[in-house]
Hints:
Layout: E1 2-4, E2 7-11, H1 21-25, E3 30-32, E4 38-40, H2 47-59, E5 65-69
Antiparallel strand pairs: 1-2, 2-5, 3-4
Amino acid sequence: MTTEHGVVIAVDRDRCVGHGRCYDLHPQLFTTDDLGFAVVNSTPHDQSTLDAALDASLNCPERAISVQDRFTRS
């Protein structure tokens, strides 16, 4: 999980099965751990990286990536 500018990007470890679409599409934001599961490695610092995080969440087949406003998050 990472946060900056009021945005939280998280990978749900229980849902991620290591398809790799997030780090294939957006290697500037995601990498893998030793087991091949997604890890957030950057924070959105401008609109293009925020858009990339949203794109990754939409392209995750397991819906394991969330992008939320940390100020309205419960």
